[in-house]
Amino acid sequence: MRPLKSSLLVLVLATVCLAQAPNPLSNPHVRRLGDQLMCLCGCGATITSCNMLGCSHSKPARERLLAMVNSGESDSAILAAFVQENGVEILAKPPAQGFNLLGYVVPFIGIALGLAFVWFVIKRFRKPLAVAGGPEIDDAAYASYQAQIEKDLEKLDR
Amino acid sequence: MENLGAIAVLLAFCLAVFAIVAGFVGGWKHNAFLAHAAGRAVYSVWFLITVAASVLVYGLITGDYRFAYVAQHSNRAMPLLYKFASWWGGQEGSLLFWSWLLSCYSTVVVFTNRRRHRSMMPYVIGVLMMTQCFFLIMNTFVASPFKMLAVGRTIQSVGDGNGLNPLLQYPAMAIHPPMLYLGYVGFVVPFAFAIGSLITRQPGDEWIHTTRRWALVTWLFQSTGILLGAGWAYAVLGWGGYWAWDPVENASFLPWLSATAFLHSVMMQEKKGMMKVWNMVLVSGTFFLCIFGTFLTRSGVVSSVHAFAQSSIGPWFVGFLAIMVAGTLYLILDRLDYLKTESRLEGVISRESSFMFNNLILVAACFSILWGTLFPVISEWATGEKISVGKPFFNRINIPIFLFLLFLTGVGPLFAWRRTSLDSLRRNFQWPLIAGLVLVAGLLAAGMRAPFALTAFGLCLFVAWTIVAEFYKGARAVSAKTGGNLLAGAYELTRRNQRRYGGYIVHMGIVVMFVGFAGSAFNMDSTVEVNKGDAFSLGHYQLRVMDLTSGDNDNYAWNRAAIDVNKDGTPLGLFYPERRFYKSGERQATSEVAIRRRLNEDLYLNFAGMSDDNQRAVIQAYVNPLVSWIWIGYYVLLLGTLACLVPSKVRLQYARTKVLGVKKKVYAPAEK
User: In this structure, what DSSP letter does residue B388 have?
Assistant: First the structure.
């Protein structure tokens, strides 16, 4: 009876172990690298986040990543190997060099130009309005207008 | 019956052409008869498109599989809701849906303005009908939903249809496209009024007053559509996320950003008579981005996982866009004299300049997303090498921009119009700033190390504090005057200036959403292959598979797992993630995820399918902190927008600077 119990225990343990066989994504290093690589199956996700069951690209890629991480290869060597095999397209972020550098800098150049434009607008429109040629107004009228202006502008903040 | 829809669309096209000619000629020649006829033509166009749409919907519901569109997008097993939703589930139907919505909007515009804007309305009708005409060309000549299945010259019917894409058979998805379309199409109206104003050389901002509510309502539809889309992605796609920076998602977000910029900058024109050219550019840009988004979604220029209706209609959209952009540019440049600013800035640190910065950052965010979306195409064109621009790229570029925008959300409203003194800055920002910094220090001390999340949480508290302080100060003053409590004071305060305080509520909604976005820095997930009785854990959760079952109905077959969940030993009950395999069409699989939603975190379980040997179930488990705050934030935003739409109890009038004369003494404004 005892051998049978032991066998059953081994079977149960084996099932549990099989069920929890090391998934490449349980390795944080693999997850981090997988987040830098695109899944090329067309899902638009990274190798880490592609959740298509049995995906023809992300599944073998994860297994390969795990193997390369376990063999002690450096991150840059692993990424370079994937790029060599699949082209730059596999990188989730294009490398910040050559023409692709534009991808990173253009938005910020846009912001810088926008800031310069806003600064120009502020400088330009801070100049007083040209009112030459208008009729002169007396002190009493001026005071009443000034009071009215202050009153009206107060409303803007209400 | 089979010809009625096609004939109705063709007649609608003819009448739309007539409305364009009658509108422009009637406006130009001041011919009231022609202008009136153009308005009547708009009603007729609406009637005819409604007839056409009814024919299509009737065909979808009754299963008239002689129509190619019905055979492609409907089937007998689908519930009635999804048969109806098939109207916008495919290319041809969704273009007819565009047309119908536009005709509804045009009819409402013509009816509500039948006694107003007599000089401008014929041109407004002309512009509306130009857009209508473009979509009717699509409906009639390019992508007709009324094509029949035929062998030779004999019309044929198939036994059953392919059905709606299973991913779209979800309640939120049934209303997500209409909401987005309502938002996209709706911006035609402010655009048409802006163009009408330019053509008639109106120096004032009548078009802004007329279209403010239109713009706000359509912005709300866009917001609702985007959030429904995010909710759908979260609940249906099974990847545990709600936003992936996919080109189609980006296409829906771009007009929202420019529309948000427009809603802010119109206040400058209303209150100070400034930024008139900019408002023209923004309202036109928003309309163009709506069309461009549709082009991007349908043309296949960029690859997207969400593109459900790709075809070769792209060049038509490019042509239409080119004509409209050229015409608008010409009009703006030709009418610059009528768009001159009426006021001058009095201080660099002022509400006026904060609006400019807010607009700059919103437009920069819009540009950077557009740039990232198109960059793979540009790069391939320039270098010949394919590249990918995924979530990491967009996050790297956009997170700093959006955090700065969040900062401006807090500081902008606290700047006074004209100028802000340093004393006022200190008074308004001291405590919110201290609170934000204390929170960041506390989170750092608690071990949080994610820099963007830390910044986001600090800014969220900073902005929330400024908003609450504004309500508190105002409510205290009102309650002191009226004798009521603070809550009644806050209500009365909002009623007196709905736009201002409604706007604050919208800002609070955005803050609440940012709390949810920041939570994604702490997501956890696990993928396991399990059998009945197996257990695994994720974070504080212990999960055990209690049962694995399968079955089928007319529409789909399913695999389901019953998972018993405990959190730190406390039982939370059974959860049932499911995998469905739809029988029609391409037998696509979809996920019915099981989500335990709580304010602090969601537990998200996805039955991904069976293992390679078909012996074990593959379960994906995610713990997503703070996600619920995104959906809560939407409801706050909805409340705030509705508050903005209600007229204030006190009618506010905004003074404009007008030079009445000159005084030798230099004007020195009174000290505040």
Answer: -
Q: Which residues of B touch A88 (CB under 8 A)?
A: 385-387
Q: Give the three-class secondary structure for A95.
A: coil
Distance CA B201, CA B191 (A): 15
DSSP A16-57: HHHHT---GGGSHHHHHHHTTBB-TTTT--BTTT---TT-TT
Query: pLDDT tens for residues A139-154?
Result: 777 788 777 777 776 6
Dihedral sign from CA coordinates of B171, B176, B181, B182: positive
Report residue A128 CA to chain centroid gap.
44
- Give whichever of B131-145, B350-364, B408-422 has the largest mean pLDDT: B131-145
Q: Give me the DSSP letters along B291-336.
A: HHHHHHHHH-SS--TT--S--S-HHHHHHHHHHHHHHHHHHHHHTG
3-class DSSP state for residue A7?
helix
Looking from the CA of B491 toward its CB, the CA atoms found within 13 Å total 6
Task: Indicate the SS3 state at residue B228.
Answer: helix
The number of residues in chain A equals 158
From chain A, the residues in CB contact with B581 under 8 A are: none
Residue B536 Ramachandran class (φ > 0 left, ψ -120 to 50 alpha, else beta):
beta
**Contact pairs from chain A to chain B, CB under 8 Å:** 198
Q: Which of B388, B590, B624, B672 to mutate to test the interface with A (most CBs of A within 10 A)?
A: B388
Whether B581 has its CB under 8 Å from any CB of chain A: the answer is no
- Which of B663, B667, B671, B672 to probe by mutation at the A interface, max A CB count within 10 Å? B663
Interface of B with A in 626-665 (CB under 8 A): 652-655, 657, 659-665
Are B389 and A93 in contact (CB < 8 Å)? yes
Q: Does the CB of B614 have a partner CB in chain A at under 8 Å?
A: no
d(CA A85, CA A61): 11
> Which residues in chain A are contacts of B244 at CB distance < 8 A?
44-45
What angle is formed at CA B88 by the lines to CA B290 and CA B263, rounded to 5 degrees? 30
Mean of the pLDDT values across residues B522-533?
88
CA angle B593, B594, B597 (to 5 degrees): 120
Cα distances (Å, whole numbers) of residue B337 to A129, B277, B342, B535:
16, 10, 12, 74
Structure token pair of residue B521: 């820095």
Would you tell me which residues 394-413 of chain B have a C-beta closer than 8 angstroms to some C-beta of chain A? 396-397, 401
pTM: 0.87
**Angstrom distance (rounded) from CA B491 to CA B489:** 5
Confidence of residue A59 (pLDDT cuts 50, 70, 90): confident
Q: By the CB < 8 Å criterion, does B358 face chain A? A: no
- Cβ-Cβ contacts under 8 Å for B69 (sequence gap 6 or more): B56, B59, B90, B92, B93, B145, B146, B147
Per-residue pLDDT tens for A104-158?
Answer: 999 999 999 998 988 888 777 765 555 555 667 777 777 887 777 777 766 655 5
The Cα–Cα gap between B249 and B243 comes to 8
Phi and psi torsions of B42, nearest 5°: -60, -45
Shortest Cα distance, chain A CAs vs residue B188, angstroms: 27
Tell me how close the Cα of A88 comes to any Cα of chain B, in angstroms: 6
- Residues 427-486, chain B, touching A (beta carbon < 8 A): none
Q: Kindly report the backbone phi and psi dihedral angles of residue A87, in degrees, each rounded to the nearest multiple of 5, phi listed first.
A: 85, 175
CA angle B210, B214, B218 (to 5 degrees): 165
The verdict on a CB contact (< 8 Å) between B368 and A107 is yes
Q: How far apart are CA B642 and CA B639, in angstroms?
A: 5
- Positive or negative, the CA dihedral A80, A85, A90, A96 is positive
B241-245, B436-440, B553-557, B664-668: which is most confident: B436-440
